[in-house]
Amino acid sequence: NAGVTQTPKFQVLKTGQSMTLQCAQDMNHNSMYWYRQDPGMGLRLIYYSASEGTTDKGEVPNGYNVSRLNKREFSLRLESAAPSQTSVYFCASSEGGIGSYEQYFGPGTRLTVT
Amino acid sequence: AQSVAQPEDQVNVAEGNPLTVKCTYSVSGNPYLFWYVQYPNRGLQFLLKYITGDNLVKGSYGFEAEFNKSQTSFHLKKPSALVSDSALYFCAVRPQAARQLTFGSGTQLTVLP
């Protein structure tokens, strides 16, 4: 069981470039999430997918798009990167959305936008 | 909207001493409460959760947390700290009817040998 995997681990972009962060889970979880982590701010939810075929905005969705490709995969796209999007991005999954389910996190992608 | 406060950015404790990492929350209705730990350059790992029932919850690696409804707190505790417990700890809350989990800003725990 690999759990939650993310690619790439590191990325440097120039302002205005685009990229897609990939996430996959092998735990047959229904719900998946994208967070960003900034110093002193904890984790903030960007988008989530409660189940295959659905996506919803979180706390900080501006500048991002997501695709729930299938039950296993949930990608995050930056269409035109900005320096404010420099952050560490975490993907997570959980068995369900509503309920006491804990979330399982990937190792993160460290993104720098210059 | 729900919120979580971790009032201490940094907690230092000597190895073998008890440790406490504080968390208070604000939420409408009954909450689910979680503690996660993050080691350097790693993702978050689940430690324990409060759902309902017994106010003292036991979790991984000897950690426990006490739910106090009147003080809206969910402090993380361990009777005897280890150097290997040094990490960043996050408290999180979700109302029972909601999908979104809200995290605190994190507390850096350093256990001194």
Q: How many H/I helical runs of chain B?
A: 0
- Could you tell me the mean pLDDT of chain B? 94
| Broad shape of chain A | globular
Counting copies of identical and different chains, the oligomeric state is: heterodimer
The number of distinct β-strands of chain B equals 12
Number of helices of chain A: 0
Q: Radius of gyration of chain B over alpha carbons?
A: 13 Å
Percentage of residues in DSSP E strands of chain A:
over 45%
Strand percentage of chain B lies at over 45%
Structural class of chain B: mainly beta
Q: Total strand count of chain A, please?
A: 11
- How far apart the termini of chain A lie comes to 36 Å
What's the helix-strand series of chain A?
EEEEEEEEEEE
Q: What is the N-to-C order of secondary-structure elements of chain B (H for helix, E for strand)?
A: EEEEEEEEEEEE
Structural shape of chain B: globular
Low-confidence stretches of chain A: none
Biggest interface reads: A-B, 27 and 24 residues
Characterise this structure.
The complex is a heterodimer of chains A (114) and B (113). With 114 residues, chain A is mainly beta. In chain A, 0% of the residues lie in helices and 49% in strands. Chain A contains no helices and eleven strands. Chain A has strands at residues 4-7, 10-13, 19-25, 31-37, 43-49, 56-57, 64-68, 74-78, 87-94, 104-105, 109-113. In chain A, the strands form two sheets. In chain A, strands 2, 4, 5, 6, 9, 10 and 11 form a seven-stranded mixed sheet that branches. In chain A, strand 7 (64-68) and strand 8 (74-78) form a beta hairpin. Chain B has no helices and twelve strands. In chain B, the strands form three sheets. In chain B, strands 2, 5, 6, 10, 11 and 12 form a six-stranded mixed sheet that branches. The N and C termini of chain B lie far apart (41 Å). The relative contact order of chain B is 0.34. The model of chain B has no long low-confidence stretch (mean pLDDT 94). The interface between A and B is medium-sized, with 27 and 24 residues.
